Structures are given as C-alpha cells and as structure tokens.
C-alpha cells in the first residue's frame, strides 16, 4: 500500500485533493438537492392540480417551456432586464472589492478594525437583517437622507455629471458612473466575501517576488501589474463567477421574486419551467465567462 502511494505523481495527488475538496458539495447535492431537482423537472413537464388527497400531475410535455418563451409576455423582457443589471453591477463589485482588498492589505494603524468594517456587509446580508431592510425598518432614515442629498446636488446625479461633462467623457460612460455612485450601498453590501477572498490571495503571494522586484528597481505600479494582478487572476475569475451567481440567484433578485409570485399565483408548471430556463441561462452565462476569462488567468506552477 505504501509502495503504491509513493508512486502517485504530483498531478494525481492534486487531482485527488480536488476531488476531496469538492466531495462535501457532491454529497450535499446528492442528498439534499437531487430529488427536488428531478421533481422540479417533472413539475415543469406537467400541470399541477390540487386534489383532496394532495396533488395530481397532468403531463403536458414541453408546452410549459414553449409558453414561457413564446407566449408569456413578461418572461423574456424581465430576463433581459435582469441580465442587463448583472452586466452593470458585477464589474463594480469586482473592481471595488479588488482595490479595497489591496488597500486593506497594507500596513496602517487600525487595519483590523477597518477589515471588520468591510466585512460587515456579509453580516448585513443575513436573512433577518435583509427582511428588516426589505420592509424598510432600518433604511428609512438613511434613504431619506440620501434622497435629500441627491436633491441638493451633493451626491450622485447632477454634481458628478457636471464634473464628468467637463472631462469630455462619453455620455454612456457618464451615465454608468452616475449609476455606480447611486448604487454604492448595494456594491459595498455585495463585496464582503470577495474582499476576504482577495485578501487571502494577497497574503499568499510570496514576499520574495516583491523583494526581487525591488532589487530590479520596479516601481509600486509595476509591482502591481507584474506581480500582484497576475497572481490574483485566478481569484478574479473565482470572484467573478461567485458574484454573477450571487447576483442572479440571491435574495435581491427581482426576477426570481417575479417567478416565485407567478408560480403560486398563475401556474405552478409554467413557473417551474421558467425557473429551470433561468437555471439554464445562468449556467450558460457562467460557462461563457469562465471560457473567456480563463484565457487571461495565470497559474503559478
């Protein structure tokens, strides 16, 4: 047994480590999610009728999928709107969390307190706080103050647009920046996990690389683009995938809320078909992003 273990190559050991790392997810999916997933497929292919003994499924084939795409007027429209919001929001979260992690990795007094503050969005996104936030028990005063500041031109819209206009920037870019400023609370709240992942990556970069760069006379700007960014590129892809999935499937997703309301209000079968179509769309988007971004990812051997 010992002899066969010693014959394992480094590549095989890494493969075994990868399988062991994903084993808890695999077991959790098989035990907790596989049966509901198969059941949802059965619901999507049928029409559910409530009976005195429970429910009955009337098989319809692919009719629910056909009606969701070609008959239901709001599904495609709301799906495109949700994907558009994702394209605007995800880059903001990645950029903010990346540079926040770089700043928090520097040595300065009170760094531990600052890291705790930046991790607060993770706590604030918990279920109870999210419900209170959604019902406006917490944010009424904050929202009122923000709206007053915007109305006075102190924050967002007019002040920033006037500044960007002086720089002769394109109109679409100005609109994007103004929208980003208006969504600063959402961006900060959505960046806690990403900041922690980037921080872990920054602390894993060997100090010898920076020492060699100093010997070669590299500036801090060159160190960032030649060492820091390439070494963190795998985590950029990790955070990118995580942020996309979190945005499209999190509690804040208006499209998921609409599907849920439609399912229990109109048609359980068609609503389940919409959810499966959305699941397929998210999977395709993630696959496309990974295939594109992986070409620029640097893996240290």
Notable characteristics:
301 residues; MetI-like fold; 2 domains; 15 helices; globular
Note down, in words, how this protein is organized:
Strand 1 (46-51) and strand 2 (54-59) form a beta hairpin. Helix 4 packs across helix 11 (192-204). This protein folds into two domains: 1-44, no CATH class; 84-296, MetI-like (MetI-like fold, Orthogonal Bundle). The protein is built from 15 helices and two strands. A two-stranded antiparallel ribbon has the order 1-2. It is mostly helical. It starts with a helix and ends in an 8-residue tail after the last helix. The chain has helices at residues 2-6, 10-44, 63-71, 75-104, 111-124, 127-134, 140-151, 157-166, 171-182, 184-189, 192-204, 207-215, 220-249, 254-265, 268-293; strands spanning 46-51, 54-59. Helices cover 77% and strands 4% of the residues.
Compact overview of the structure:
The protein has 15 helices and two strands. It is mainly α and 301 residues long.
